[in-house]
Amino acid sequence: MIKPVIMTVDDEPEVLNAVERDLRKRFAADYRIVKAGSGAQALEAVRQLKQRNAALALFLVDARMPQMSGTEFLVEARKIFPDARKVLLTAYADTDVAIAGINQVQLDHYLMKPWDPPAERLYPVLDDLLGDWSASFRPPFEGIRVAGSPWSPKSHDVKDFLSRNLTPYQWVDVEQDAAVRAEAEAASPGLTRLPVVFFPDGTTLLEPSGRALAEKLGLQTTATKPFYDLVIVGGGPTGLAAAVYAGSEGLRTVIVERETTGGQAGTSAAIENYLGFPSGVSGADLARRATAQAKRFGAEVLTAREVAKVRVEAPYRMATLDDGTELACYALLLSCGMQVRRLEVPGIETLTGAGVFYGAALTEAAACRGKDVLIVGGANSAGQATLSFARYAHKVTMLVRGAALAESMSSYLVDRIKDTPNIEVLTGAEVVAAHGSGHLEAADVASGEARDIRRIEAAAMFIFIGATPRSEVAAGLVERDPGGFILTGPDLRTGGKLPRSWQLERDPFLLETSVPGIFAAGDVRHGSSKRVASAVGEGSSAVGMVHKYLETV
Ligand SMILES: Cc1cc2nc3c(=O)[nH]c(=O)nc-3n(C[C@H](O)[C@H](O)[C@H](O)COP(=O)(O)OP(=O)(O)OC[C@H]3O[C@@H](n4cnc5c(N)ncnc54)[C@H](O)[C@@H]3O)c2cc1C
Fold first, then answer.
1. CA-to-CA dists, residue 231 to 91, 96, 157, 385, 484, angstroms
2. Which of the listed residues 309, 334, 532 should we mutate to test ligand 1's pocket, taking the one with most ligand atoms within 8 A of CB?
3. Cα–Cα distances in Å, from 279 out to 103, 176, 177, 351, 541?
4. What pTM does this model have?
């Protein structure tokens, strides 16, 4: 494949040559280094690269250049290569310029001049950004192809699984591409089973399950040991944080994740309030980094495997997997999070996956290009998705049950929504039915005091109406509140008393359930904050308590 490009722009020839030299030293094996002495020259080169169908991975641009500043250049360049990572080179006094860059072009980083030694001050930043870019980069050909019909729920599941596992694939609509349709028919006569997934090694899978895909992609689906110090049920932010700390502190640790690591956060288009990411971070990106970190510390991560039941076989805790195999451990963490609440109105169920989606379903963004989209819900997650889809869709209509958006959403999102011209917000509005043959075409929306019904045409509807805890796996074993959230630590007391099942002299640790050695943290826990940062905090704190527990067994 042709090498992707790193472009550097600087009007001072010595600086330009020095950057080019340092870039070549480190990246020439994998990237083509292209340099330009001005913004105008660089833009011309960018246009030519686009015409040649080249891939542009990263811009490294001087902030202060005559005629066209670094930020002005990036404003234009990102219209042509929106996914390329953007770095400004600034002098110390230019922090304001860099902050303006973050706001105007969603700058990924600003580097101070001089960047010597590059091994410390240049390469780590660029390595990180390029890793990030290549993880989401879709090569124009080669690789996996998914052939299916648009708006089909099964095709959506496959695309979602691949993209959440950062596996590049090409989507081909069998209605539109006769050649691929013929190929797909050869594998699936009459196209009764779609999608067909074609792999570069010549093999195919029909309507594959998450597990079949995981196995084909070489993801770990079975545990290597029969016994662990800590089994973590659920690989969202809570479980991942716990695995990082447990692994780094020498505990034999395994995460069992029913889908793909990242949990709810993994479906978020942009998490903007997580410490250390001033320009925001996508949930998928955060999940990728955390998963890599957990594995680096020796934790095992099983993908597309579900824990069906948790039980005690003293002195061990046992996790029974979906195929009946059992993992034994000393301590077990329930970090199963929450699942989205379903919208129960006529038409929704049959159209789910066919234009109706729960969560942000960013895999569908391309299919929404130029179309009208509905977002149901008024919390932050709905706001983030609205802004995200507004970049592709012709129009996004938000349907909010409350009287005002500000009742349920952070003000920074409310402001941005107000400033985006192709977003309309309907308050006091509820979806009462969905219509469409084969895929969503319109929704009936009731609003106003008289609950007048208005039909709104839309190609897609994304629903964000809250979630319920996934605690069934430990039902009947640990104490839960009436909403199904798991009780831990002091919350286990009623009328000052611990449950009768608690036999130990000591009190339960803060994140320990009514069963000693079984911990719960993150969204599934009663009283948790339902935020990424608190999930990560609880996951890591739980490991400290696991250590204390292990001292007693
Ligand atoms: C669209 C969206 C946007 C959001 N944006 C933000 C934001 O900007 N900022 C913020 O702070 N918070 C945000 N949140 C909230 C945040 O994502 C959650 O608080 C956080 O993900 C909770 O982490 P968790 O690990 O406790 O649970 P989850 O993220 O729910 O993860 C639990 C995991 O456990 C797995 N699992 C469940 N049961 C089993 C089982 N039996 N066996 C195996 N695996 C199982 C699930 O598949 C899942 O992957 C957002 C949420 C959503 C849905």
1. 49, 47, 27, 33, 21
2. 532
3. 8, 38, 39, 35, 27
4. 0.71
